[in-house]
Specification:
The chain is α/β, with parallel strands linked by helices. It is built from 16 helices and 16 strands. The chain has two domains: 127 residues, Rossmann fold (3-Layer(aba) Sandwich), CATH 3.40.50; 217 residues, 2-Layer Sandwich (Dihydrodipicolinate Reductase, domain 2). Helices cover 36% and strands 18% of the residues. Helix 13 crosses helix 14. The protein is globular. The structure holds nicotinamide-adenine-dinucleotide.
């Protein structure tokens, strides 16, 4: 009897732990609505959060696999930073990044390795910013711990891998008053930035619909993810598990949680053919949850529609699908960069030969180039040349790091706040919920807890 009671207690404890890591839901008018936890006492909104200026930002990097070392390299080119510590599971990876610092004539950083070395790094009180480039499964534990130790944190995409984790990031940032920025680099691509500037100046009129995707055949990379973490994750998770590259730029165009918000989505996917074959061959797996191609439609409170796609399995050219349809114009980046407008609109824009334009085709190359020069985004203008030189996906990665450091040094709100991180990352969990219920509509949580309409329009903060 005693044994049975003990077993029952153990089962109950496990169940309680499991409940805490998932989020409850109900079905309301045919829409699946996840619970939105109330803000705990002692927590306050971090909308517009600005921390004290940090003249020299002291940084610690965790995760030095395929992505991390290129971040270390980019930081070596930035003014106003000090690379204090490097950490990876494997000491040899730390050593390889140490060589990057040596090549740049920078002092050696402190070294951490092993499963738990990252905790020691976070506890150092001479670090202002922890920069996380580890597998998705570790982003939230690391980000939360770093904030709890008083550090600001920048975390690779997606910032969180479940809905519960999205809330954990929001709650920790609100409780600790620390920045938590997701490192969504695609919002800094030159075409996206320029188009955002054009949109904010009204060239496209009212934006009705926008598109984004991650279509990238990862065949050449599967063997290199440490411990096979990515295929492992995809084997277990259906849905758009990597939505932020497509969604981030779209959310900035649509002023998400700055006057509008995503309200609900529906998702559909294809069978997993290549993914299942890959997992069978590489892992002996008999099942594979992630469909080869996943499509999602998201509606916003103001009635706009976002179209997202995910496919990392088929031989198809790289495509982030970035496109927008406005009442007065159109922009798209793939497969070719193009803009379309009514000719009369461009008369004031000082572009060549605007009389010969028509609205049925993209503007000619020289007009597009003139527009892009004229509307180059102010945050990129001064560092465009250096960004192209340093590189990182053509320069966008460097602009991202530059902006992160610029805002921290000037005590400004960051370009991406913790609500962006949660909103853009929750798509994986929400699309899975829709797919598992025959494409049922799923409500998108309001991570700002009612403050999504307080700020009007997305803007990058600039020092006076
Ligand atoms: N924004 C982009 O364009 C972009 C591009 C590539 C990857 N990423 C993101 O970067 C992250 C890393 O991806 P990757 O391709 O470099 O994967 P990877 O497997 O090559 O690297 C992950 C690294 O983290 C280390 N690591 C794992 N557990 C650790 C621990 N407990 N402590 C310290 N280090 C640990 C591993 O040893 C490995 O070196 C992912 O989130 C991925 O989505 C983003």
């Amino acid at each position: 009897m005693k044994k049975i009671i003990l077993l029952w207690c153990a089962a109950a404890a496990l169940f309680a732990v499991g409940c805490r890591s998932s989020v409850g839901y109900e079905i309301r008018d045919g829409v699946l609505v996840f619970d939105e936890p109330q803000r705990a006492p002692g927590q306050a909104s971090v909308l517009g959060l600005a921390a004290d200026p940090i003249p020299v930002v002291r940084v610690g990097f965790i995760g030095l696999g395929m992505r991390g070392p290129s971040a270390v390299e980019r930081f070596a080119y930035l003014d106003g930073v000090e690379i204090v510590a490097l950490c990876d599971l494997y000491p040899e990876r730390v050593e390889a990044s140490q060589q990057i610092l040596a090549r740049h004539g920078l002092p050696a950083a402190a070294e951490y390795s092993g499963e738990e070395g990252w905790r020691e790094l976070c506890r150092r009180d001479d670090i202002d910013l922890v920069y996380v480039c580890t597998p998705w499964q570790q982003h939230v534990p690391m980000a939360v711990y770093a904030m709890e130790q008083g550090r600001h944190v920048a975390v690779e995409v997606p910032a969180a891998a479940s809905l519960a984790e999205c809330w954990q990031l929001v709650d920790t940032a609100e409780r600790t008053r620390r920045h938590c920025m997701m490192l969504e680099n695609c919002v800094y691509d030159f075409f996206e930035l320029t188009t955002l500037n054009m949109a904010q100046q009204g060239l496209f009129g009212e934006i009705l619909e926008a598109e984004g995707s991650y279509i990238h055949n990862l065949e050449p990379y599967w063997d290199y993810y440490q411990g096979n973490w990515r295929l492992d994750f995809n084997r277990e998770h259906r849905g758009d598990v990597y939505a932020t590259h497509g969604l981030g730029p779209v959310c900035q165009l649509l002023d998400i949680h700055r006057g509008d918000r995503m309200t609900r989505l529906v998702a559909m996917d294809t069978p997993s053919v290549n993914g299942a074959k890959l997992a069978r061959e590489k892992m002996g797996a008999e099942t594979f949850a992630n469909g080869d191609h996943t499509l999602t439609l998201v509606q916003t409170a103001r009635g706009k529609v976002i179209h997202l796609q995910h496919n990392v399995y088929t031989p198809r050219p790289y495509d982030r699908m970035y496109a927008l349809t406005g009442t007065e114009g159109y922009a798209c980046k793939y497969p070719i960069e193009g803009y379309a407008f009514r000719p009369a609109q461009l008369a004031a824009a000082e572009v060549p030969d605007h009389e010969n334009l028509n609205e049925h085709a993209f503007v000619p190359d020289e007009v597009r180039e003139a527009l892009m020069a004229r509307y180059a985004h102010p945050i990129a203008r001064d560092i465009a040349e250096k960004a192209r030189e340093v590189g990182g996906h053509g320069g966008m990665d460097f602009i991202m790091d530059y902006r992160l450091i610029y805002c921290l040094r000037n005590g400004l709100p960051l370009d991406q706040d913790v609500y962006d991180a949660a909103e853009w990352s929750c798509i994986g969990a929400l699309t899975a919920a829709s797919l598992e219920r025959n494409s049922m509509p799923v409500a998108v949580p309001d991570f700002t807890r009612g403050a999504w309409n307080e700020v009007q329009g997305y803007r990058h903060a600039m020092a006076e």
